[in-house]
Amino acid sequence: MERLDLIIDLGNSYVKFCFAKLGVLGKKHSNPSHEVLLILKKELEKVKLDSIILSSTASEEQTKLVLGFLESKGNVHYLSHKSKLIFEMAYQTPETLGLDRIANITAAAAIFPGVSSLVIDIGTCVTYDILTDGNIYCGGAITPGWRMRFKSMNDYSARLPSFEMLDYKTFPGKSTEDSLKSGVFYGILGEIHQFINETEQSFGEVKVLITGGDAFHFVGGIKKTIFANPKLTLKGLYEILKHNN
């Protein structure tokens, strides 16, 4: 029988998961987190699993419910800061490092072994993580995502509106609304270029990997050759699962 593994990234708002068959990741599924048990029960009804990895930033209560259900379906590796990793950790506070960042770094180490990499994840926050050509994770940076930037300007100024869409990419903006959207878009885009430049000054030529739910807004504006992969986090989780089995 062909080997079938399940990779799950459970967040507060969304659950993302995919199956891996013969070492190849299948279609990525993304659903509201409150539906996770209903969805998994349906998806796992007619399959037999070899191994499962669960990464969760959801509430402790929800995580326990999902973990309990998965343990009835196969061997589960629950990702934590005690998991064995395929790179060397030089971060001073590894217990505070986000699980999604650990997964992203793992994916970079697997895709480009022996090469310096900069991993950019564009979501609620924008995270930047550096893996050296010696396979050492040495840290990165965290900045606000575009929704957070709009919200902060609205919160701190009663006259500035907030927006639910980032749909304006022209500078200069010819209205206050367009100026806000232009500022947020080009602020993040300029930040991305600056972090790429800073990384290359310190570590030489690097591979730039980009992922995250909001990455599609920015990939077209990045001048350097990049590797955009919407399944990067799931890829990293799968590599961790294999390493811990």
N-C termini distance? 19 Å
How much strand?
Answer: 25-35%
CATH evolutionary superfamily of the largest domain = ATPase, nucleotide binding domain
Find the count of extended strands (DSSP E, 2+ residues).
12
Order of helices and strands: EEEEHEHEEHEEEHHEEH
How much helix, percentage-wise, in residues?
A: 25-40%
Residue ranges: pLDDT <50 for 5 or more in a row? none
CATH hierarchy class name of the largest domain = Alpha Beta
Explain what you see:
The protein is an alpha/beta fold and 245 residues long. The protein folds into 2 domains: 4-78, 2-Layer Sandwich (Nucleotidyltransferase, domain 5); 88-146 and 175-238, Nucleotidyltransferase, domain 5. It has 6 helices and 12 strands. It has helices spanning 36-43, 60-71, 99-111, 146-156, 176-203, 232-244, and strands at 4-10, 14-21, 24-25, 29-32, 51-56, 75-78, 88-89, 117-122, 125-131, 136-144, 207-211, 226-228. Strands 1, 2, 3, 4, 5 and 6 form a 6-stranded mixed sheet that branches. Strand 1 (4-10) and strand 2 (14-21) form a beta hairpin. The longest helix is centred in the last third of the chain and has 28 residues, at 176-203. The protein is globular.
